Amino acid sequence: MRLRLHHKMRLSIIAFALLLPVFGQPVGQPQDTPPPSSEKPLIVEKFTFVVAPVTVTDKSGNLINGLRANDFQLFDNDNPQRITQDIAFHPISLVIAVQGSANMEGLIPKIQRLGSVLDDLVLGEQGEAAVIKYDHRIQTLQSFTSEPNKISEAMKKLKPGSSSNAMNDAVSAGLRMLKTRGPERRKVLLIIGEARDSGSEARLREVATEVQFANAVIYSIDVGHLMATLTSKPQPPRPSAIPPEAQHLPAGVQATPTTQAQNNVGNWIPAFVEIFRSVKGVFVDNPAQVYTRFSGGREYAFASQRALEQAVSDLGRELHSQYLLTYAPTNIEQGGFHDIRVVVNRPELIIRTRPGYWIAGTK
């Protein structure tokens, strides 16, 4: 039986207070989910544990199963933490957020064919999924269901909309839906669309905060802007601005989801710190990359129908081979970014997990 790690300790801690949007929870079929309000009332979030999803592979990228609790060590800011163990099965709750803006018109038929492969490859036993579409607004095409035919029917409802791409708002809406699911479920958000955002009211910093409180893992199947443009009606060009902290490759080397996945995630910590420290938020040209890195997920490339289905297949295998390391931090009073480091007792293995989480401090 595959190891699952869950919390048994209930330590009530006020993590921090941030300016965050307050949203309602209802979802329907179909319906429009309004974007986050521009009002940012002060709320205090509480959490009792941190979940670190851990993917273990060998040097060839093959997933490793069968590890046990005593095979791992977890450090929070270099402080060893007690990992609590639970071998119970954790069914998956998945939100599929699909970009439905006008420039996706030529790609939507390819995405619609995913409905038939999502159930067996990703959801598995007792799994459930919901589907939302986003352009300038967020629409719930299907609330959570375990019936594969309903997922397929929801995907068929995808139609090109406006020229906007409110991805931040879509991620926020998906996280709100996942927070309605029980604590026994694994919470996963899959973004299918361009990695950029245009038109969201929610800021990157606010959504990243929601990610860590939801204990959700975010994956993305990235549609290149060029690919979307070539398969759609001509759109006005949009300038690209990539901040220095988001560039980690040598000059002249083009970043791809594969090379990005091989980068040391520690290089991203300064960028995460800057995002959370900034009151007004930092512009990032690739927010999908921030969400996948910050949550411990992964990016996949969408270059063809075959590549799209292969990405879903790879995602399914990873989710069903992943270890959930859960702990109640013993150093919660330390403000700032908490680095999470996981060590496995087999030095030849490679680990991918979320890099950490942020707590506002007084320093």
How would you describe this protein?
The chain has helices spanning 108-112, 115-123, 148-156, 167-178, 204-214, 225-230, 257-262, 269-277, 287-295, 305-319; strands at 13-19, 31-33, 42-47, 50-57, 72-76, 79-81, 92-99, 128-134, 138-145, 186-193, 217-223, 299-302, 323-327, 336-344, 350-352, 356-359. Mean pLDDT is 77; it is low at 1-30, 36-44 and 234-266. The strands form four sheets. A seven-stranded mixed β-sheet has the order 2-9-8-7-10-11-12, sandwiched between helices. The protein has a four-stranded antiparallel β-sheet with strand order 6-5-14-16. The protein is of the alpha/beta class. Helix 2 (115-123) crosses helix 3 (148-156) and helix 2 runs parallel beside helix 10 (305-319). It is built from ten helices and 16 strands.
Features:
363 residues; alpha/beta; 7-stranded mixed β-sheet; 4-stranded antiparallel β-sheet; 10 helices; 16 strands
Radius of gyration: 19 Å
User: Helical content, roughly?
Assistant: 25-40%
- Give the class from helix and strand content and strand pairing: alpha/beta
- CA(first)-CA(last) distance: 45 Å
Task: State the oligomer.
Answer: single chain
> Major sheet: order of its strands?
2-9-8-7-10-11-12
Unreliable runs, pLDDT <50, ≥5 residues?
Answer: 1-30, 36-44, 234-266
Number of strands: 16
Q: DSSP helix count?
A: 10
Strand content: 25-35%
Mean pLDDT across all amino acids: 77
Largest sheet: 7 strands, mixed
Task: Please provide the ordered H/E string of secondary-structure elements.
Answer: EEEEEEEHHEEHHEHEHHHHEHEEEE
Task: Describe the global form.
Answer: globular
